[in-house]
Amino acid sequence: MTVLFGHPSGGPFSHNAALAHFEAERLEAFCVAWMPSLLTLQLLDGISPLRPMARRLRRRRFLALVGAPKIQGRLGEMRRLITRAIGQGDEVLAYEANAWLMRTMRKESSRPRVRAVHAYEDCSLWQFQEAKRLGKACIYDMPIGYYSAWENIQAELARQFVDWLPAGGLPSSRFVRHQQKRQEMELADLVMCPSSFVAETVRTFHPNKAIALAPYGVDLEFWTPGDRNTGSEVLRFIYAGQISLRKGIPVLLEAWEKASLRSAELHLVGSWQLSESKRASLPRGVTHISALSSEALREHYRGADVFVLPSFFEGLALVLLEAMACGLPAIASTATGGADVLTEASGRLLHPGDLDALVEGLRWCDKNRDLLPAMGRAARKKAEECTWDCYRRAVTEAIAAYV
After folding, report:
1. End-to-end CA distance of the chain, in Å?
2. pTM over 0.90
3. Cys bridge to 69: 29, 205, 283, 295, which one at CB 3.0-4.6 A?
4. Helical spans, DSSP H, in 163-290
C-alpha cells in the first residue's frame, strides 16, 4: 500500500517527507508543480533575464528524489514564475498553485494502491474530501502553528504596534481561506507537527485530534562553524528572517535600546516588512541587511556571537537550527520551537513578547562573553541530533499505522 504525497513548490521539509515515503517504498507519487532537471537549470542560467528564475528553481531540486515517481505541472508553474519575474506577482499565484495541487491529488487519490493522502495547509481540502469518500487516510502537515491561534495574536500585535505597520497596514488577508483551513483540519486523521508549540496550537482548537511530532532537521554538512573572530571586542548578535511583527522585531529593537550594551552590534538579516520610518531610525548599533543567499548567511553566522529569534509564531524555525549548527548560542522564544531544541547549556528561552526577559538575555550574553564559545559548541552538538534522517524516521513511523 502507498502514500500519495504533495506540496505545491517543494522545500527542505516537503522534500524529506517525500523521501521518507520513497525510502520506505510507500511513495505512490510526489505531486509537485515543478522539480527542474539539472539541464533545465543550466539552460535557464545561460539566459541572462532568466537567471533569477534559475536561482529560485535551484532550491527545488533535490537529488535524492530524482528517481522518485512524480506528477508535475510544469507549464502552469512556468507561467506563474514568469509572471512574478516581470513584477506582476501576487499572492493569488500561490493559491493557483495550491488549486493545481488539490485538483491533481484529488484525481490521483483514486489509484487502487493508495491508502493515505499526505498534504499541507491550504492545499489539502479537495483530495481529503475525495480520500474520505474512498475510505483512505488523510495526513495533514502543519509547518507552522494553527492559523486560528495566529489570528488572535496578529490582531493584538497590530493594536500594540500600530506605528510599526507598513504603509497600507498589515498584508492583505483577502486570499486567506479560513473555512478551508478548518475543513482540512476536521478531515485530517493525523496531524504532523514539527514542534510541541505547533502541536499545542492544534490541541487548543482540536483537543481530540491525533498528532505526531516530526521535528525538522538541518544540513549539518553545509551549516558548519567557522573560525570565530576571537580578537574582536565587539559582541555581535544576529537575527535572520522576515523583518515583521510576527517575528517580534519591535520587541527586539526596544529590548536592544533598553539593554544599552557597549561594544555590541545587532544585524537584522531579511526582507523589511515594517514601517519605513522605523528602518530610517534604527537604534545605535543596529544594521539592516537585505535577504542573503544561504552561503552569505552562513558567513554572517560565522562572524557572529549570538543568534536571537524572539518570534511570536513559528513552527520549528529552520534558521534557529542553522544558526545552532554554525556554532551560535541562541536567545529564542518558545514560539520558535526553541523549547524542543535549546537547553541552558546552549541558549536562553523566553516567552513571546517578554521584553524584560529579552533585555536580561542580551545583558547576560554581554556580561558572560567568555561563556559563549562553550555554549556555541553545545548548540552545535544539539543541532547534530536534529538530522533529516531523524525527521524521515519520525514521518515513516507516524504514518505506518495508516498504510
Report:
1. 6
2. yes
3. 29
4. 178-187, 196-205, 249-259, 276-279
Looking at residue 65, what is its pLDDT?
A: 95
Cell numbers representing residue 353 in the block = 513578547
Parts of the chain with a pLDDT under 50: none
Quick one: CA dihedral 271, 274, 275, 278, positive or negative?
Answer: negative
User: Strand pairing partners for 159?
Assistant: none
Ramachandran class of 93: left when φ > 0, alpha when ψ lies in -120 to 50, beta otherwise: alpha
Q: What amino acid occupies position 123?
A: C
- Counting every residue written for the chain, the total comes to 403
Residue 103: its H or E element? helix 91-108
Residue that has been written with the C-alpha cell 531579511 in this structure: 270
Angle between helices 74-85 and 91-108 (to 10 degrees): 170
Q: What pLDDT, on the 0 to 100 scale, is given for residue 47?
A: 72
DSSP annotation of 145 reads -
Q: What is the pLDDT of residue 10?
A: 85
CATH number for region 235-383? 3.40.50.2000
The pLDDT, as a whole number, for residue 149 is: 94
Long-range contacts (CB closer than 8 Å, 24 or more residues apart) made by 264-268: 264/234, 264/235, 264/236, 264/237, 264/366, 265/234, 265/235, 265/236, 265/237, 266/237, 266/238, 266/239, 266/308, 267/236, 267/237, 267/238, 267/239, 267/300, 267/304, 268/239, 268/243
Which phi and psi (to 5°) does residue 193 adopt? -125, 140
Which stretch of DSSP H or E encloses residue 319? Answer: helix 318-325
On the CB side of 226, how many CA atoms lie within 13 Å of its CA?
A: 15
CATH of domain 2-217+388-402: 3.40.50.2000
* Cα 154 off chain centre by: 18
Predicted pLDDT of residue 266 = 98
Q: Which three cell numbers stand for residue 22?
A: 520513497
Domains 2-217+388-402 and 235-383 are alike in CATH topology: yes
Residues with Cβ within 8 Å of 13's Cβ and at least 6 positions away in sequence, in order, are 141, 143, 194, 216, 391
Question: Which residues sit opposite 143 in a β-bridge?
Answer: none
Tell me, what's the pLDDT at 77? 81
Q: Map out the domains of the chain as residue ranges.
A: 2-217+388-402, 235-383
Side-chain-side CA neighbours of residue 60 (13 Å) = 23
Check the CA dihedral 7-12-13-17 and report its sign: positive
CA-nearest of 309, 332, 343, 329 to 373 is 329
